[in-house]
Amino acid sequence: MKTIKTDLEGVLLIEPTVFGDHRGWFMETYNEEKYKRLGISLSFVQDNHSFSATKGTLRGLHFQLEPKAQTKLIRCTKGSIFDVVVDIRKESPTYGKWFGIELSEENKKQLLISKGFAHGYTTLTENVEVQYKVDELYSPEHERGIAWNDPSIGINWPMNFKPILSEKDDEAPMLYEVESDFLLG
Fold first, then answer.
1. Domain contains 36
2. pTM reported for the whole predicted model
3. Is 14 within a domain?
């Protein structure tokens, strides 16, 4: 397993070791002891699994406020997504900056997203499945969102079409309008 730092402190790309032969492949998607040796000590309390039938489905940008903020470990297990993270920690030197990467069933990469970041993705293929672990339970009262197309963030989404959005995501506010209680430290 290999970790790669991104330009956003608190967001890590994880490349699992994949063992393959003529039968197929095997990999550990999570191993608490190996993660601890890499300096990642978390207690995951919920696993989520989403399915999107149509290419161009966009989910996000989502986060939860403290005390129910979530660290997420994301992976795409079927198809391909463009996964995006936005720093919403007000005192951060990278506040409002974003990082994006393709996660797919082929590359098997995972993204570890710390508290203090908004998260979203768009599907690059049909019939996409995304699975992720979180270290805090879902809390509708603490859930918030940011507009996927906020010009102050300027995410370069890889699509030449109108995304398929939920009503909630379509009506999400701009970053400057969002309640956020995340500070550095």
1. no
2. 0.94
3. no
CA 5 to chain centre: 15
Neighbours of 84 (CB within 10 A): 24
Asked whether the bond before 16 is cis by omega within 30 degrees of 0, the reply is: no
Which residue in the list 35, 119, 121, 132 is annotated as catalytic?
132
Instruction: Give tens-digit pLDDT for 2-53.
Output: 999 999 999 999 999 999 999 999 999 999 999 999 889 999 999 999 999 9
Number of domains making up the chain: 1
C-alpha pair distances (Å), 178 with each of 19, 50, 81, 87, 152: 44, 25, 25, 13, 13
Question: Distance between CA 58 and CA 75 in Å, rounded?
Answer: 16
Which one of 22, 35, 62, 138 is the catalytic residue? Answer: 62
Range of the domain at 82: 43-177
Task: Give the integer Cα–Cα distance in Å for 42 and 31.
Answer: 11
> Is 62 tagged catalytic?
yes
